[in-house]
Amino acid sequence: MTPLAELQRRFHAALREDGDGKVEEDIRADGLAPARRLQIYRNAARLLLTDALKANFPATCRIVDERFFAQAASEFIRRHPPRQPRLAEYGAGLPAFLARFPPASSLPWLPDLARLEWAMLACQEAEDAPALTAADLETQPAAALPRLRFAPHPACRLFASPWPVDRIRSFALAGGEESPPDLMGDPVRLLVRRGEAGVALRRLAAPEFTLLERLLAGVPVEEALDGIEAESVPLLAAALRDGLFAKS
Amino acid sequence: MGWLEVHAENYLGGGPARRELESLRQDYPVSLHAVGLSLGSAEGLDEAHLDRVSELVQAIEPAALSDHLSWSVSEGLYLPDLLPLPLTEESLSVVARNIDRAQERIGRPLLIENPSLYLAFRHSPIPEPEFLGELARRTGCGLLLDLNNLYVSACNLGFDAGTALAGYPRERIAEIHLAGHAVQEIDGVDLRIDDHGSAVPEPVWALYECALDLVGPRPTLIEWDTALPPPEVLLDQAELAQARLRRALGRVAA
Fold it and tell me: Which tens digit of pLDDT belongs to each residue from A18-77?
């Protein structure tokens, strides 16, 4: 009789096609071979994981052809099975995987598109937390403001890419309704944040991006403003309005 | 419609999804149905996941919290499937220990559901109804009887669903699930696949009638979460269950 931990290790490995077949000795045949019975579980798990990747990376999935995505997903699932039970959090490694996936080498922007979708998903799934508001800052003595540091709100991210992945994404999701974006000479800096209606993207100019990057990294206000060639007060006000910082 | 059930794992984050659930909770009792606790894992529970489920339970105050007699995790890797357990003394102590831990962390009893089975282990000496009964006795958990799962397992493994039904400890059954399934031919053998993607079929309704007689009226859920039909079809299924439940309640009152 195989101890449960060992039986589960063998069973799991068999479903991931990483087993030695020994688990079949512990399974009753009853008119259908153990390997075929295992296949039912394997297919169900694979289907759910593929569907999860399609749901988590909808534009990445649609911009390539179906067979290409199925092949990439199947290889990714085999090499990187999930380590936690939330399918909405499955696929953190997909962008890096696509960057090294030989069939994707002719689509240099594809990993960044996946990276953008992952950032959006992270914002969508982030826990709720109260945001810091301008009113909260009013309670601070004016002299303390330059030394203030902010903590990032869990439902926001900054994202930069040499490719216009926001436009590629909207092109992919429009399903042929939009004309393809010009891929060259349009690097993007984006703010990804979850609002009342869901996750939204906003393009940022270089000074705002740099300022937010510093503030979200916890750099004190005075230092973060150093060398920013833009009106800084409206930028700070907008960041507070957007709820980019967590209330401590 | 009397109450709603959602997958706990779909609501562990914040934002609009959580707001929707909170808003539904204002108007209906909500049951949280977990699929990811992996109560049958020999290596124990994922404490981080348990913390998140526990936080959701505190926030939503569900009418019930359930998961399955199954496992999904081995060596820290998770497969999204309700995998079968050999029903042995060893499994009994593993599952009881995990349920104890989950109930201790969450602070309320779980309901444990019988899974759909596509295989049986050579060494699995304890019948499932008895196994679940003993789990309930050791941990204080309740049971969620899924009649579609029972029918699917009976067909796939060649036992009689009606006989098995009589073996479950009726006083522990706190909820009933009904659903449809698909039939798939593999190597000339018809297998029933639990896919929650069609109407409740006649044999499952027949089991439900038996269960209402044997067990008595219990909160009943229609599970239909793939290939969704128009809402009228779902409401019609719920009404078919409700009508049988009303008749059973009438019998109890009389």
Answer: 888 899 999 998 889 999 999 999 999 999 999 999 999 999 999 998 899 999 999 999
Within 13 A of A170's CA, how many CA atoms are on the CB side?
10
Q: Are both A87 and A172 inside the same structural domain? A: no
Q: Which of A86, A157, A193 to mutate to test the interface with B (most CBs of B within 10 A)?
A: A86
* Interval B98-108: pLDDT, tens: 999 999 999 99
A50 touches chain B (CB under 8 A): no
Are A51 and A119 part of one and the same domain?
Answer: no
Q: The pTM is what? A: 0.94
**Tokens 């219990």 identify what position?**
B218
Nearest CA in chain A to B7: A86
Enumerate domains of chain B plus CATH numbers. Answer: 4-253 (3.20.20.150)
Stretches in chain A below the pLDDT threshold 70: none
Domain count, chain A: 2
**B 104-163 residues with CB < 8 A to A:** 118-123, 157-158
Domain that includes residue A217, residue range: 112-248
Q: How many CA atoms lie within 13 A of B11 on its CB side?
A: 27
Same-domain pairing of A201 and A153: yes
- Burial label for B81, CB within 10 Å (0-12, 13-18, 19+), is buried
Mean pLDDT of B105-113: 98
For residue B79, give the nearest of A7, A9, A81 by CB distance. Answer: A81
- Any idea what the CATH number is for the domain that residue A177 is in? 3.90.930
CA B26 – CA B36 distance, rounded (Å): 26
